[in-house]
UniProtKB/TrEMBL annotation:
Full protein name: DNA-directed DNA polymerase
Catalytic reaction annotation: DNA(n) + a 2'-deoxyribonucleoside 5'-triphosphate = DNA(n+1) + diphosphate
GO molecular function: ATP binding; DNA binding; DNA-directed DNA polymerase activity; metal ion binding
Annotated keywords: ATP-binding, DNA replication, DNA-directed DNA polymerase, Metal-binding, Nucleotide-binding, Nucleotidyltransferase, Transferase, Zinc
SUPFAM superfamilies, per the entry: P-loop containing nucleoside triphosphate hydrolases, post-AAA+ oligomerization domain-like
Keyword Transferase annotated: yes
Listed GO biological process terms: DNA-templated DNA replication
Family that this chain belongs to: Belongs to the DnaX/STICHEL family.
GO cellular component terms, semicolon-separated: DNA polymerase III complex
Amino acid sequence: MTYQAFYRVYRPQSFRDMSGQTHVKRTLQNALLANKTTHAYLFSGPRGTGKTSTAKIFAKALNCEQAPTDEPCNTCATCMSITEGSHTDVIEFDAASNSRVEEMREIIEKVRFAPASARFKVYIIDEVHMLSTSAFNALLKTLEEPPSHAVFILATTEPHKLPATIISRCQRFDFKRLSSQDILERMQVVLEDITLPYDETALKIIAQAAAGGMRDALSLLDQVVSFSGEKVELEDALLVTGSIGQDVFYDMTEALHQKDIASVMATLEQLIADGKDPLRISEDFITFFRDLLLMQTGAQLYDLMELITPEPKFEQLAQSFAQDTLYHYIDVLAKTQQEMRFSHHTKIYLETALLKMAHAPQQVAGNTATVDPLMNDKVARLEQQVQQLMQQLQQGVPLQQNTPQQAPQQRQKAANAAYRAPVGRITEVLKGATKDNIQTIKASWAQILQQLQKSHSALLAEAEPVAASSSAFVVKFKYDIHCQMVADNHALVAMMTQHLAALSGMNVEMLCIPNDQWLSVREAFIRDNGLTKKAQDDEEQEQQPQPFIDDETKVASQEPHIVEAENLFGKDFIEIVED
């Protein structure tokens, strides 16, 4: 007889042989004993968790000559023929290769015929989610009201792809991933049956690589047995599965603790050169840190560890880390793992994660964090201030508080510090400012605001041009926050200059300044240039244009009746016409 793979030879033939899935076994066995089996079942779950095997065991228990029973005898003719796959009343149907409606109609036509020799005619439809919509519709009516002798067992790894009308007519059982302990025990049974010595650590590596699937675990075990020969060794399991030994992770973790980044990067480079997958390395690293956390918790959790073997050096390593540090490492690797799944540069992501872990502030065991010196100084100053306040309270000295009048001033100062106007560039504008330029801009200002969006024009509602030269003009803002928002919105500033150029022909730059800063700049410019003195004679003024600042700057040099008119009616309602 030709050689058969382990997952075929050691497929469970009774409920007691099944690993895990306790909730499924108990429910089905109770229904068999009470003779309360239904007509349709849905087995869903990850691959290799026993869905098809459970369906065959259930079919044998239904038709066993010892029925009603919670376990098939596996000795009668019916059980043996079902095990061999030759029983005519137990039909296995692969929906992946027979998804058309014609195949489903052929099955439905034969459902009404009574079983040839068994009590029930059992239909096991594997990968049922692969059926076409027409095939589901053809199956629907029969599944709802089948003959009393028919039982349907649907198996799928993707139950979300099944129509709700199909799911609602079935008794659903969700198969879970098997634990590493269940897989380990099953592999021990297999190796003991073939009398092959083994290293238990190697079996743990295989169980971890199987990721909860018994079929994957037995297939990997089959490979390791073929590779190793006389004994299943740890090195053989690591080589076949592509996993990494615990000693490598110990060295890398110790290097991270010592912040020996060069050693960490060299080890990672060697692992990748040996063909290890960076995504798999990150997964194993997470498992390693998880085992360290279990080791910190207590010896009663040692049985749950998947990668680490309880040894003194690992216990010492676990105690050298604070729990928060290990949690941080796991969090960094988990986030990196998600990013690696959508990238072709997985090595770079893993290197970045290891660098981030190495540069993270270390914490000593016992959950006591190493305090940053700067933070320590701040805490010391705060403690000193608190002690002074407590002494003042005990001595009856009233605490100094800000008056309501001082609070707005302080808030205003804080707001002023938020934005600093380009004083140097504004001063250059003032040196070349002329009356004609500012009047040209003011004449177009209202029309420019009308062409802007309402949100933009609202920011400029309390603003006005105050000085203009041939290269730039200055806009004064009443509120600093509006000045900040306009100055930071480069698109709005560019739009303003474009509208101004279209309306007035002036291609000039827009500079923003808050009101209080404008007062300071203007006062400094007047003082430095002596604009409060008497103006020179008219000839000199005509020969050389003088700086013009549109605000209270020129009040001292204006005519008395103009000053009085502006005081009475306001500058905006006064227009000076020169004869």
